[in-house]
Amino acid sequence: MKIAITWDYELFFGEQSGSVQKCMLEPGNRLLEIAQKNGAKFTFFVDAGMLVLGEKEPSFKQELSEIQNQISSWDQQGHETGLHIHPHWEDAIWENGWKFDLKRYKLADFKDTEIEQIFDNYLFSLQQWSKEKIVSLRIP
Question: Can you give the pTM of this predicted structure?
Fold first, then answer.
């Protein structure tokens, strides 16, 4: 039997986002410690919309650098990077933190052509961050 151990690598949000440190980096580091101690391999499903939009926001540069370092770290340790799609990033804005308009939270809220564009854009962006080919997808 094969068991897949997965983690959604994403910002939690309410009125605005949580922090990269508390939502992603600290839990990611803890999971990597657990995996190393137990000889396990994980799949980290990265919310790629955050990367796409984050690359356009100068105030998010430091967080992106830390995320890149962590992705590189799990790549080197043999963990998988998977594509995770939360399309609410299409309408998010930066105002001293990410603010979300949740009117278009799920893919079904978009036209078919927009869904294809979101998928292609997010996959292309994430593939630039991971040394291994992206072969797994998780859509909420």
Answer: 0.92
